[in-house]
Amino acid sequence: MKKFEYTIKDAVGIHARPAGLLVKEAKKYESKIVIEKGEKKAEATKLMAIMAMGVKCNDTVTVTVEGSDEDVAVGQMEAFFNENL
Amino acid sequence: MKEKIFGVLQRVGRSFMLPIAILPVAGLLLGLGSSLTNATTIQTYGLESILGDGTILNALFTIMSKAGSVIFDNLPIIFAVGVAIGMAKKEKEVAALSAMIAFLVMNITMNAILQINGEILSNGEIAEHVLEGTVTSVLGIQTLQMGVFGGIIVGLGVAALHNRFHKIVLPNALSFFGGSRFVPIISTIVYLFVGILMYFVWPFVQNGIYALGGLVTGTGYAGTLIFGIIKRALIPFGLHHVFYLPFWQTAVGGTMEIGGQIVQGGQNIFFAQLASPDTVKFSADATRYFSGEFIFMIFGLPGAALAMYQCAKPEKKKQAGGLLLSAALTCMLTGITEPIEFSFLFVAPILFVVQVILAGSAYMIAHILDIAVGLTFSGGFIDLFIFGILQGNEKTSWLYIIPAGIVYFILYYTIFKFLIKKLNLKTPGREDDDAEVKLYTKADYKAKQTRDGKTEANHLLDERSAIIVKGLGGRNNISDVDCCATRLRCTVYDSSLVNEGILKQTGPSGVIKKGKGVQVIYGPSVTVIKSNLEDYLAHSTEADDEIYTQDNIIEETANENTVTEVNIKEESKKEIKNLHTISTAITGQVASITETPDEAFAEKMMGDGYVVFPTEGVVYAPEDSTVNFVFPSKHAIGLTTEDGFEYLIHVGVDTVKLEGQGFEVFVKDGDFVKKGSKLMTFDIQYIKENAKSDACIVAFTSLEEGQEVQMNVTSTVNALDEVATIVSN
User: Which of A30, B115, B159, B613 has its CA 20 to 30 A from that of B171?
Assistant: First the structure.
């Protein structure tokens, strides 16, 4: 299991468009990818669940990656967050 | 981002193909017509009695020459209209009309300002202080000389306006002017201002282009080499049209005075010299952008083909030979190089590097040898005959092409043969047998075609189309389909669904996937493949896709195909299930989600669904649902239906930035809502003014593979009207 923390820089948080991109990215990997903010948790492949978390700018989320390709996936996901969120 | 730019550039390059396609014909008319009415030629060969003034043939050839000429003279408007057609996504005819109008408006605007400022005198003459060559007559309008750039600016701009506005909904009182009728109107207004802007900006550009042209001309042979290498290297990306055209058609490629007229661009200079009776020798400085092509297209690449043929495995020689021979012949005759180039580009990129360097140097060699043979389209034998041999060696030095060509033939042949053997490159006929796991190889496909005979011809055409559709990730994944000289050029919504393996079963010489653009290279027969594909897409359903592709497997085991086919068809159709009926949450003009003026939604990134262009600022619960969440900035609500479909109601595009301004929400997370209860109100006017669009998107975010939203209504509806169905197949 791999994880990293990330503080959202996008001024409007994880809204529809970045959430859509995130789901698309997460679906590329076998590993189960979970995003956590405080008590709220969502699987990165579930658009509705991610949006329901209502992640805003400056919120810190924890991303957990677990599965066969977790080494690759965690790096790619971190790069994705840095670039898009 | 890079991929997006590639996608746009690919479309631009593709849109140039329609206007470019006319050039060989225009060149043929002009070439034959002017050669055979040239007084010197007639005198030299003593043909006054047959071709001299007053003969019927002279009249005929004069007409041909003029007909060719008028096309070259009016290339700007041809490009304006052609590019607009190529770039418009839908209702292309509206874009074409708008481009023509915009082109006229832009030029007459510049003309009016030129007159007001005294640069054009009241008697129509150009004032003396105006730099020569900067003002020209376009369709009888004296205006700034913008060349095909002017046309391309209009074409691209109008297409952008068209794609943005052709579905616009205007207030009721003005509704007559809405939709596609709005496009010519907005184009007129925009290009009036573009004309004004151009009057002030273009002189600077003109000076810049002149300077750039001087720079390139100044670099001499090295410049020619660089031009050649860049042009050849761009071929795999299909971007070469964007690159070479300015050199062929505008001042970037140099300017020259011919018969008192200032002519811009290498190709234009050649044809102006061709039309002028005073030409003693064509300018190699003008033709350096293309004369070298004869050397490697007629001689060099066929040498490469021969090397590949000789390197093929003995048992595959016959098959590889057929492919290579037809590719070499196409290249030699018409100068279309893609069939040969793509036979090695993908399997052995190193050979392409060789090709780029050799071909690039051929441009320079032709320049050094002072070879000045013009061409209309590409450097095949047809063009060499008309614009080289027919014009005579004194004017063109075409004879030098032969020794240079022989040298290049040997160079290509030996380098290709050496590299293929040394590096064991997998050129045609050298593939490892077990390497490919194909459901259907090209050879199988051909064998089957002969076996089934003509009665099945139509069926097979559809079958290929169906395989292409499948390879592109299904019909719903195809955004648009077009083609250029040799490639099928498609844009898809989701490039991850594209299966290159399946596409390769249809027998192309290569498949390029870059971002959302997919290019399948078939060679010159691609136009037919494209039409078949379009017909097939228009006249069949998703069920047919399955049948035709399934057929491949079924027919392998059973020969009784006609009967089984019908049965399967019926069965497959029954398999489409209606899972859920969708009612609209908002009153307004409803359309498929693909019509959303926002790429992310239109490409179904958030899921399949529908879009409403609202006429009333209220969102109702379209059915009994649970509220999953209300987004903090109030513009989006997530809900779940009673049977478990999750859907997102997103009001406006880029409205997240409004931070709740203009929205009022009446529900909260976890609420259960009854059909018809008010979820939210929003201020249409405020959103229109402050966000990208007021389009309301409803996306079903949890659909599974094979489930999709099928629109039943696409018109103006009231909230809670049934508009679509979720189906599975």
Answer: B159
